[in-house]
Amino acid sequence: MIAQNNVRSTNNDPVESSESYPITGGTNGAGTSRLFRQFGSLFSSPAPTTDPAGYVEFGSISDPVASSGRTLGTFAGVFCPVALSMFSALVFIRVGFIVGNAGLYVTLLQFIIAYVILLFTVSSVCAISTNGAVEGGVMISRTLGPEFGGSIGTLFFLANVVGCGLAISGCAEGIIQNFGPSDGTGSGSIPDGRWWRFLYCSSLNTLMLIVVLIGAEMFAKTSMMILGVVVICLLSTYVSFLTQGPMDVSIPHENSLVNFTTARYTGLQADTLWSNLHTNYTKDYTSNGNQVNFAVVFGVLFSGVTGIMAGANMSGELKNPSKSIPAGTLSAVLFTFLCYMALSVLIAATTTSTLLQNNFLFLGPINLWPTFVTIGILTATFSTGLSNLIGASRVMEALAKDRVFGPLMSFVVKGTYKNNPIAAVIASWVLVEAILLIGSLNTIAQINSVLFMLAYLATNLACLGIEITGAPNFRPTYKYFTWHTAFIGLLGTAIMMFVINSIYALSSIILCLLLVIALHLFSPASQGAQWGSISQALMFHQVRKYLLMLDSRKDHVKFWRPQMLLLVSSPRSCCPLIHFVNDMKKGGLYVIGHVKVGEFADNDSSNDPTIEEYTQWLSLVDHMKVKAFVELTLSRNVREGIQHLIRISGMGAMKPNTTILGFYDEEQSKDFFEHEDSPYKTSEFDGNGIKLFPYRKSGESKSLGVVDYVRIIDDVLRMRKNLCLCRHFHRLDKQMIARNNHIRYIDVWPVNIFEPKNEDPFDVVSQFMMQLACIINMLPVWKKLELRVFLCESETVSENSAAFERPAEHRLDQRLKLLRISASIHKIPEWSKDIDFAKHRNILKQFTGNSDSNQLMAEENINRSKLYMQRINQIIRDRSNATAVTFMYLPTPPATPSVDYKEKCHHYLDLLTELTFDLPPTILVHGIDAVTSTTL
User: Fold this and answer.
1) Percent of the chain at pLDDT above 90?
2) At what angle do helices 859-878 and 837-845 cross, to 10 degrees?
3) CA angle 641–654–890, rounded 5-degree value
4) Where are the domains of the chain?
5) Superfamily of the domain at 74-526
6) How far is CA 138 from CA 143, 509, 707, 805, 824, in A?
7) What is the pLDDT of residue 354?
8) Nearest CA to 660 among 706, 753, 751, 593?
9) I want to staple 27 with a disulfide (CB 3.0 to 4.6 A). Which of 31, 192, 294, 486 is the partner?
10) Is the pTM of this model over 0.85?
11) Architecture of the CATH domain 557-726
12) How far apart are CA 175 and CA 186, in angstroms?
């Protein structure tokens, strides 16, 4: 293995049979994955600022080196992009629609609700922005993890696409208002109609496409000038409200819901204000006469104020992001809020509801300088649409570069020229065209609001999760953030999503969940390790809490479950056993343990080799598709290492209660990673001429002696752990069991062959092996097999009386029923007829822990014992032709303080070898404590 050169020892190659072990042995910003690193778009409306590499940073804390190229302050870098994005198309073309339908009271309430949600979300954005160097998109993608982050990022990409469509629709409305039939001049007008509007929108979309392909970076630097133009146009509107007198304003040509041609603008009047205080919902003439209600109005309103992330996306150009982002964002939010509130009050006090409901673009005719309104509409909508198109393309490029959807989006990476994602821009343009087919700005606005709200919900969820888990590295300097602000923001966005449109909200959530499932199944697993995932932090928080609550002193046999420690030397040779133990754990703890023989010397500068090998073992667990933990240890010898693993594996009350070893024999090992017919075949662990997980080849000597192996068995039992020795598991083929009807049984032999007693089927060991067999028999592949229990009684036990035979069988049957174990009982007639147990009992006792003899064993007794074991083996083999797995009774090993302990160890293991010779996959079991209960 790779790490073996770091230890001063010989290789700990297995001493295993062909199947088993019997026993041996944060990245920084430059290294992280790219997804959403360049997503200035992930939360933005305005265009992201890209560095020379094409990335957009997110909330990174500046340092003397990193900030050398940063020139923007709070006003130019944060306030202007946020304010411009939050004005968008709403300020000139839909505030009148909102006031005219909802009334002033509800309008002010809706603005307050929207801005409260935004304020708490801004708090989360500021918390992340002031919490150290964070790259673009980390807030969502690398905080929530690849599955949730990738899916939310995808929905945010769609939100940018819809936002672009919304802005283009608003821009087209402004053009029609000034140059179409609605201008009332009757000359020089351009045609109007559904498809004419789609043509104008498509032309604007294509113009944006050209701008993005040629000069997107230049546009990103002009936000301050564009905002200045929009503010001047807005001031002209305020001045007009205060100075203009009553007049009639024409109704747009497209409004076919009314039969009058003009509506009244009154100027500042108390009666007008009074009439506009309450709701007066009517039909929307721009969406085929659909009825307007609270949800429709709020959806339109919220779509215009979704740009709170714009400043954070400029962090790569900010001199001091940690101060500029909170200050600039909050001031922009306050500024736009006051502008909208003032505009709403002035509209309610000067314009009749009839005009507001039937001409959404009335601000132009009533303005002292109508051209200013036209410039404001075109400037605000075109800049917003352009920035959303840029943003959508950058998100798509980031998704492609991180291979979130595998090779599906590889065309985007190939279609990048000079850091400009040409293919992503064109793909985004095509999707915007599809959105424009909807036609109605108000309908597009609702979809846009729901998608942005989902992104804001994820932002608050990310911060709430980090705060709840108490992550030590989450220490934002923004002092107004708490988990309460994140929770309120999350709750507000979730509720208002469904208020706007429950169908759109539910559809977006379902789409998000489908994306989560798809990314979980197909997204590269390495992304989770590169980004980190809030799910890991939340699970750690909960698991720690519940582990402390799980008290081993409260354990009860009713709720006992196997918690396995499988000791593996080389997984190459024991794949079927690893899989079988995974089946046998029944939802319990499963730990794969490995001992690496070596010495951790004080003067050795190399690292602990188990650290380097740990990731290889985790990859093995992934390849095997088992639910297991991995524990590795470095020790001077295998026996000592196993003692370490038994003691330290697990945590709290979740510690292994059963230790599983491979059998010690001379069978040739099989490499399941290379064998052609193996379901475990893989080349993942072969590279550069090095085979990971080496195993003992034919002719190689074992690194573990017989005596040490038997002592390990004794150690496990003395440490009060249940023990299983597994042999012949290289023959186990679950696929064949599923396909072949010839394999029909799981067998249990609850008799101590070394010292049979009448109590054997009812003692702790027998009940433990029946419990394990029952667990296996409950699983789908094994469920079709019949569980058989063999009742073996000697003449001395039955005392040659038929009267005693039936009660034993009856008692066993009753015991199985009480334990709810469905099994058939099979008596062995030749057991008492052909074998003289009385003659062999005293001899066999010498090889177990029950022996009191310290005398040397005669050769004749040894040979007789082997013949006895061969005869028992023959009886078992005769009944195992259709058996998948056999469970047998493991006698205790020889007692340590004896004269001929080493010789007894050899004979003990030889007899077990003879007993299990040529059987199906066999488990020798020894239980310590009761594991079954007759009550629920």
Assistant:
1) 26
2) 120
3) 60
4) 74-526, 557-726, 732-795+805-935
5) Amino acid/polyamine transporter I (1.20.1740.10)
6) 6, 21, 56, 73, 60
7) 92
8) 593
9) 31
10) no
11) 3-Layer(aba) Sandwich (3.40)
12) 15
